[in-house]
């Protein structure tokens, strides 16, 4: 009984190893695929949405109920091929607060766009141009 059990386990193990070690023709063609047309670009970003609430019930020390919503988006798209480098970033933020019986008030207002292009003149030295749009603190968009 013991020999039959070990023989079955050994056969099962060999069968498993042999079936997983084979590479199919389809897998070979997938491994030889070329990169797509966006080669050179790297893109990404972050999105955040924050909610906050304060509720005071039977509170003798004072204070007001409040509700706040803040959102933020930060993205980038960078390109590098040969001697050309192009770096782009966009940061957006907005937030509002309602406190007590007062209406909603703006707590955050951010717009920042940066685009920088560089051409490599020689090692670690670039000719560059920079474009930047941003809203000053407290101004409306």
Your description of this structure?
By secondary structure, this protein is an alpha+beta fold. Helices cover 18% and strands 53% of the residues. The protein has a 5-stranded antiparallel sheet, with no helix packed on it. Strand 4 (104-122) and strand 5 (125-134) form a beta hairpin. The longest helix has 19 residues, at 2-20. The radius of gyration is 30 Å and the shape is flat.
Number of helices: 2
Mean pLDDT: 81
What gross morphology would you assign?
flat
For the termini, the CA-CA separation is 82 Å
The strand count comes to 5
Rg, alpha carbons: 30 Å
Which stretches are poorly predicted, pLDDT < 50 over at least 5 residues?
none
Described by strand count, sense and barrel closure, the largest sheet is: 5 strands, antiparallel
Oligomer: single chain
Strand content: over 45%
Helix and strand succession? HHEEEEE
- Name the structural class: alpha+beta
- State the helical fraction: 10-25%
Strands of the largest sheet, in order across it?
1-2-3-4-5
